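Lab channel / #folding
Pinned by the channel admin:
"Please post every new chain as: sequence first, then the structure tokens as a reply. Keep commentary short and put observations after the output so the thread stays searchable."

First post following the new format, from NK:
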Amino acid sequence: MSEFNILTAQNVSIEFESAGVGDRIVATILDSIFIFFYVLVVYFIFFAVVFSKSGNIDSSDSSFFIIVAVLCFAPVIFYHLLSEYFFNGQSLGKRIMKIRVIKLDGTEPGIGAYLLRWLLRFVDITMFSGLVAVLAVVVSEKGQRLGDMAAGTTVIRQKPFVPLDLLRPVDVAADHKVSFPEVERLSDKDIHTIKLVLSRWQEADNYEVVEQAALKLKQSLGITNTKGLSDVDLLKTILADYAHISHF
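Reply from TO:
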């Protein structure tokens, strides 16, 4: 495993730990086991239906065989593509191993990136039994197989986990009215800290950390009139003001 830094859209450098070869191999094995049992269940259901017909399957039942084939093989073929796309960069194996796919800029990959990873999986893993993927991950500075290199992605460990929401810029309307122009004195790291506080305080059920952050900001920025905002709303407003000022 190796560590590398990602520079977010707000110029904050965040350190990630790339998933080790062992973690990725175990995740792949677990996925193969899940796929195997899925196929096994489909075949059992298929033969149960065949026997229930007392062997009277003729050409008129061709649609039945097509349906079974689709149910059996389509999920197997598209398993990695669909699971990573719909489950935020994780297959079942990756979820168990607590690893996930992210873009090199720290954001969540889109369907195009997942598609590239899936297409090159044939070369990385299927064609050479994973040898190409293992060699590429070991040699790559950021633990990338060929599919990752093409898609601009990598696989990271989730512990310690940094929510991807922290890496995205704050969305703010073009006609946003700045309430606290003093926020221009804040740094990108200050903004990242505020986002981290807002992200974590509910998880830990600790509102005191919000109060402390709000108090420190009011003191450092000289804010005397919070305009009736709660501490949480104050922090959110500061984020929006900063995003507006830094963008425009």
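NK: Residues 169-247 form one domain.
TO: also worth noting, The beta strands are 3-7, 13-17, 99-103, 153-157.
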